[in-house]
Design a protein that fits this description.
By secondary structure, the chain is of the alpha+beta class. The chain has a single domain, classed as q2cbj1_9rhob like domain (Jelly Rolls, Sandwich). Helices cover 19% and strands 35% of the residues. It is built from three helices and 13 strands, in the order βββαββαββββαββββ. The chain has a six-stranded antiparallel beta sheet. A five-stranded antiparallel beta sheet has the order 4-7-12-9-10, with no helix packed on it. It has a two-stranded antiparallel ribbon with strand order 1-2. A hairpin with a 5-residue loop joins strand 1 and strand 2. Helix 1 packs across helix 2. The longest helix has 19 residues.
Length: 217
């Protein structure tokens, strides 16, 4: 992958970081089932606490939940990991991408006022976020429930130039949205103000091998 990505004849992106963001086709019936399964587990399990402040997080065993909908979701994640891995060699045929990985995943449920503090995901390569439900937002709250990815470079944060707006990327959560980014990217979720449940799935992917793994011996 070329470290310089041209934008015009004289301007290029240097040190660019790949981020996949797309809305999955045909997500509606899968999301309805995933939401029901999440609420059933939440009713029976007090959950865990990682980056969440308020709300509920499942234990990191979602990848292995035994349902056809979870299997479908795993397929969506697999396709995204192939696309990201192909970037290292410029391969365009995903059927030819050779990569092996391990994954763990968990569900987040945020309600009014809940958020996730800034963090990274250690000991893996890719971080994945998928949105199942997003609730109904109250108007008038800046950054309401947005996920924010921050530029990890120290000097980017140190700049005091006004309007130097390359330090963060914000996404509006919508059902069916899938986001993949390097696990070392610092990220957080702003407080959600509204009604209903904001249900998302987080996933850690650790590349273990393959011709398109990007790993060196």
């Amino acid at each position: 992958m070329d470290p310089l990505i041209p934008l015009s004849e004289t301007v290029a992106l240097g040190f660019a970081t790949p981020v996949l963001a797309r809305r999955t086709q045909g997500f509606e019936p899968v999301n309805r089932a995933l939401a029901a399964q999440t609420r059933a587990v939440m009713a029976a399990d007090g959950g865990a606490r990682y980056s969440n402040r308020g709300g509920w997080q499942s234990r990191p065993d979602f990848w292995d939940w035994p349902s056809s909908e979870v299997a479908t979701w795993r397929g969506w994640v697999h396709d995204a990991i192939l696309r990201m891995s192909a970037l290292t060699t410029g391969e365009t045929d995903l059927g030819r991408v050779d990569v092996r990985y391990e994954a763990s995943a968990w569900v987040n449920v945020n309600r009014h006022g809940h958020y996730n503090i800034s963090h990274i995901h250690n000991e893996c390569h890719w971080a994945v976020v998928y949105y199942v439900e997003c609730g109904a937002m109250e108007p008038g709250w800046e950054y309401n429930g947005k996920i924010e990815l921050n530029d990890p470079r120290t000097m980017a944060k140190a700049s005091t130039l006004s309007g130097y707006g390359f330090r963060s990327v914000l996404f509006d959560p919508v059902p069916g949205a899938l986001i993949v980014f390097p696990s070392w990217i610092e990220h957080s979720v702003h407080p959600f103000y509204g009604t209903g449940d904001r249900i998302s799935i987080a996933c850690n992917v650790r590349i273990t091998g393959g011709r398109h793994s990007g790993l060196t011996a």
